[in-house]
Amino acid sequence: MELSLPLRLRSISVPSLHKPKVRISPRNLLPIRIPYPVLFSSPTRMESQMPLRATPTQENGSTVTASSPIESGGRQGRIGEVKRVTKETNVSVKINLDGTGITDSSTGIPFLDHMLDQLASHGLFDVHVKATGDIHIDDHHTNEDVALAIGTALLQALGDRRGISRFGDFSAPLDEALIHVSLDLSGRPHLSYDLEIPTERVGTYDTQLVEHFFQSLVNTSGMTLHIRQLAGRNSHHIIEATFKAFARALRQATEYDPRRLGTVPSSKGVLSRA
C-alpha cells in the first residue's frame, strides 16, 4: 500500500533495517508509524540444527528409504528407514532418534527381540524391526542383517551429525553384572569388545552372536564402540546390561548440545563415515 503525505512534511526520519518501524515527524501532524515489509524469513535455531535427509541409496545391500520429518516433542524427528533383502533374510527397520521408547520388534529370534526392546526403552528411541530369515539353519544371518540394517538406519537418521553431543558413556548394572560402554559417533567404524559370557546359549540364542551384532552395527553406522565387562557371572545379565548401557550411551551421543548451536562436533568441521 502507498502512503500519501502532505506537502507540509519537513522531515522524515528513517531508522535502519534493524528497527522495524519508520517514524514520520512533521511539525503539525501526529507521528505516523509505517511497518517495513518482511523481506526475509530465517529458519529457527532448532530447524538449523536438523540434519539433512538422506536420499534413497544402497548401503551394504540395504535400501535406504528417505522418510519425511515428523513432529516429535515440538521438533522434527530424525528418522532412518531401511529395507534389506538378500537370499537369506528380509529385514525392515525404522528408527526415530527423537522418540519415546516405542518398540515393535519381530525377528524370529526371541532373545534378540528382548534386547531390541532394551535399546528402545533405555535409549528412548522408537524402534521397529521386522525380519524373516533362514533361522531353520541358525540365527547367524538374521542377527547379522538386523544389525547391519539398524546401523544403516542410524547413519541415515544422524545425517551430517550437526549439533549432536557425539560422545556417550554409560555403565549399567544388572544384579551381579556391570557393563561399561563408551562410544563416539566419529564416522570411523571400530569395535573393542571385552565380554566373557560363561554359557554358549541363552535360551536358543548363540552368545557368540552378541559380538557379531555389535560389529555389524558399527560397520554400517560409522561408530567407535568400546564394551567392557567389569563384573558378571550370569550370561543373560551380562548381555542385557550390555544392551542397556549401549542404549544409554547412544542416547547421550545423539542428543543435541544446545551450546553447539547446530555446528558439527569436530575440529575438522565434518563427521563422515570412513
Explained architecture:
There is one protein chain. Helix 2 runs parallel beside helix 5 (235-254) and helix 3 runs parallel beside helix 4. The protein is α+β, with helices and mostly antiparallel strands and 274 residues long. Residues 5-12, 14-22, 24-56 and 66-74 have low confidence and may be disordered. A hairpin with a 7-residue loop joins strand 1 (12-13) and strand 2 (21-24). A 6-stranded mixed beta sheet has the order 4-5-8-9-11-10, covered by helices on one side. A 4-stranded mixed beta sheet has the order 12-13-17-14, covered by helices on one side. A 3-stranded antiparallel beta sheet has the order 1-2-3, with no helix packed on it. The protein has helices spanning 45-49, 110-123, 140-158, 209-221, 235-254; strands at residues 12-13, 21-24, 32-35, 57-59, 62-65, 71-72, 75-76, 79-85, 89-96, 103-106, 126-133, 167-174, 177-184, 190-194, 201-202, 205-206, 224-231. One of its GO terms (biological process) is L-histidine biosynthetic process. Pathway: Amino-acid biosynthesis; L-histidine biosynthesis; L-histidine from 5-phospho-alpha-D-ribose 1-diphosphate: step 6/9. It is an enzyme of class 4 (lyase).
What descriptive keywords fit this protein?
single chain, 274 residues, alpha+beta, Ribosomal Protein S5, domain 2, six-stranded mixed sheet, four-stranded mixed sheet, 5 helices, 30% strand
